[in-house]
Amino acid sequence: MGGTLFAALAAYSGCAAARLYLDRTGRREEDCLGGRVRLKSLWNEGAAFSLPIPAEVLPLASSAALALLWTRRRRCPLGTGLILGGGLSNLQERLTEGRVYDYIQFPRAPEPLDRYVFNLADLCVFTGGALCLWRERRGGKAAP
After folding, report:
1. What is the DSSP letter of 139?
2. Which tens digit of pLDDT belongs to each residue from 27-36?
3. Where are the domains of the chain?
């Protein structure tokens, strides 16, 4: 359980620090890493990938998903921690701001991913999910 909590705390803290650093008024688009990454600030009031989920349902659905995920943390402690930290960061922001601050775009990614703007929390959730899927495919055993 310690590894899961540590990963969740690290992900949550990193997301909060990135948001504080990047959420500056007057910030314009900025290309980084030879145009592979673009910092593009925007507030997202909807669900990921513009899924048609009503805004008032998102916090409740997120809370339920995170609670369910916690019960399965022994199967993939690090991946679960990343998902929990990123998910809690987005949930906290949605509850306090009513929207989520996104700021990372990958303009050279394959379509349609090249048009979406993400945040560090989204990347933590994606990485944690990929890690858990990879562990399952490799036949990972549950922690004692």
Report:
1. T
2. 678 888 898 9
3. 2-134
